Amino acid sequence: MVITKRGLILGTTAVASAAVAVAVIGVHRNATQAFFKESPKELVDEVWQLIDHEYVDDSFNSLDWNDVRSSYLNRNYTDKEQAYEAVREMLKQLDDPYTRFMDPQEFSNMQIDTQGELTGVGIQITQEEETNEIVVVSPIEQTPAFEAGVLTGDVITAIDGKSTEGMELSDAVNLIRGPVNSSVELAITREGKPLSFTLTRKRIEIHPVRFSVESGPEGTLGYIRLTQFSANAAAEMREAIKDLEEKNVTGYILDLRSNPGGLLFSSIDIAEMWIKEGTIVSTVDRNAVTDEEVAHDKVLTDKPLVVLVDGGSASASEILSGALQDNDRAVLVGSQTFGKGLVQSVRGLADGSGVAVTIAKYLTPSGRDINKLGIEPDFVIELSDEQREELAKDRDKVGTAEDPQYSKALEVLSDSIRGGRNSASAAGVGKDK
Question: Which processes are annotated in GO (biological process) (predicted)?
Answer without folding.
Answer: proteolysis; signal transduction
